[in-house]
Design goal:
GO terms for molecular function: protein-containing complex binding. InterPro entries: ComplexI_NDUFA9_subunit (IPR051207), NAD(P)-bd_dom (IPR016040), NAD(P)-bd_dom_sf (IPR036291). The protein contains nine helices and eleven strands. The chain is of the alpha/beta class. It has one domain: Rossmann fold (3-Layer(aba) Sandwich), CATH 3.40.50. Helix 1 packs across helix 6 and helix 3 packs parallel to helix 4.
Length: 251
């Protein structure tokens, strides 16, 4: 009998795409979520909370691999990842696949530092593991602009480029890694294009029919300088296929 692959954060933007990829490839899937299983969901489901540990032992029981997509978007990622590792070790030796971010070791912002420490917890877990770092998702770039939709002026980061990638491209890679042998730290995965934040912002506004004044801003923090130097980019690994314009056209 095939053991399921557990997807943490399986109801999130990336997690949903990973679940679809795994199901389409014929894998048995179990989703970890804090909510109860919806009536229309046919695949496996486990209700649990990585922040408290409730339900995590049951969720990690008898699984072949774990794709860890859940995030608190902050420092609590470290404790949540350790909670998952501890439960997985109590229940066997599943392959742990962790999604991280390009530049977590180069861009000094709190969330990146938490992701880097979570990576270290994975590598020292004693479990077979794989870590994939990717550039920022298209969805994030769009949300930065959308959050300013009521303002007549939209701020962009002066002199900063992004290399956004589509979650469908990332999900395909994660599904492939989860079904394969543990590979350690695999090659970074970047989107197909490196474009200025101003250009990406203008493309988003054009796609929504909004006319706004763009205001380039410079932030007096070390993270801004790291972004300007391209610490979050992977130009030599531009393997994503879906461009930001493709993403916008499909919205």
């Amino acid at each position: 009998m095939q053991k399921p692959i557990l997807v943490t954060g399986g109801t999130g933007t990336l997690g949903r795409a990973v679940v679809r990829q795994l199901l389409d490839a014929g894998h048995e899937v179990r989703v970890l979520s804090r909510g109860s299983r919806p009536a229309n969901v046919q695949h496996g489901w486990a209700t649990g909370d990585l922040r408290t540990g409730a339900g995590i032992d049951a969720a990690t029981s008898d699984v072949d691999a774990i794709v860890h997509c859940a995030t608190t978007l902050g420092r609590k990622d470290v404790a949540a990842t350790q909670c998952l590792i501890d439960a997985a070790r109590r229940n066997g030796d599943p392959h742990l696949v962790y999604i991280s971010i390009v530049g977590v070791d180069r861009v000094p912002i709190p969330y990146y530092r938490a992701k880097l420490e979570a990576e270290e917890r994975v590598t020292n877990s004693g479990l077979p593991w794989t870590i994939l770092r990717t550039t920022q998702f298209h969805d994030l770039i769009a949300r930065i602009t959308s959050a300013q939709r009521r303002s007549p002026v939209v701020a962009t980061l002066a002199g900063v480029n992004f290399q956004p990638i589509d979650v469908r491209d990332v999900a395909e890679r994660l599904a492939e890694l989860a079904a394969g042998s543990p590979a350690g730290r695999v090659a970074d995965m970047g989107g197909p294009e490196v474009r200025s934040h101003r250009d990406l912002t203008r493309a988003y506004l054009d796609s929504t029919g909004r006319r706004r004044i763009l205001l380039p801003v410079r932030l007096p923090v070390a993270a801004f300088d790291a972004y300007r130097r391209g610490g979050h980019l992977a130009p030599d690994n531009a393997v994503g296929r879906i461009t930001f314009d493709d993403f916008l056209a499909g919205r």
